[in-house]
Amino acid sequence: KHFQPSVVLMMxxxxxPRFFREAHLSGSKLAIVNGRLSExxxxxxxxxxxxxxxxxxxxxxxxxxxxxxxxxxxxxxFDRERMTTTGNLKFDMAFDxxxxxxxxxxxxxxxxxxxxxxxxxxxxxxxxxxxxxxxxYAVSSACPEIRPRxxxxxxxxxxxxxxxxxxxxTANQDEDSCDTHFARRSAPxxxxxxxxxxxxxDSIGELRSVLALADIVFVGGSLIPHGGQSVLEPAAAGKAxxxxxxxxxxxxxxREFTTSNALIQLHEDELEALEEQLHDRLFDLLTDRDERxxxxxxxxxxxxxxxxxxxxxxxxxxxxxxx
Length: 323
What we know:
The chain is an alpha/beta fold. It has 13 helices and 11 strands. The strands form 2 sheets. The protein has a 7-stranded parallel beta sheet with strand order 7-8-6-5-9-10-11. A 4-stranded parallel beta sheet has the order 1-2-3-4, sandwiched between helices. Helix 6 runs parallel beside helix 7 (160-173). The chain is elongated, with a radius of gyration of 22 Å.
């Protein structure tokens, strides 16, 4: 009633039954943009198919990322005539000047000068922080001349304090972790920052800028059956990417990258075996700069080949607005 919107755009997987109904009753046109519907979510919605079909009846247009997303939404009862497969908007992303400026300030503060390779663990979940830290220590022990550094960016801000404690406790427990230095992004700047081994990115909205500094990016949410986080941000930065086996939230995207040999995906196994796999893959990449560059270039090519979703989306929305 306050804003009286003409059109409401819901991004990706946001299906809010009461909101959809109220938007419809207010006279607003409602569109799902960059929509995705994983097999897991589809199975869950299938249990209440009649209810979901009624809620989707309030939607005027659905612009879905992939054919699989379109088919699953149609199976829930959505009219195919009101759907278009656009591709993923995130393939069109680009880094802006503000992100570049932050990258440089971060580079200066922590002296990221290429002398020591940098691993970024992006959007991590429990217990991935312990796994990546232990893998870092194992690589450093096996090949001390490499001395890689690590930035950990937890997915959820409410875990920042817990992850800081994890870094400290893992360092104290691991025999290979002697003389490990740790800093928090949120702490006051210190001259010691230039020498730390592990950096906790306990800040909001800065991960994309930090990705530009990485040599290797591990994408979290993928060592556990969470379903993974997006690999598109590190791919846009042209980085070598490692992900775990559990990536069903981004099934079509991961398939695109694996088909193009543009990332490393670990094989499904017990967590202890996954830790060993991660250590081996990190060691391989840290000792083979050419392979890091090849993977990063391949990831960037996949991004370029899949651009164009934004234009398709805008043209579809123009037609909706004009009705």
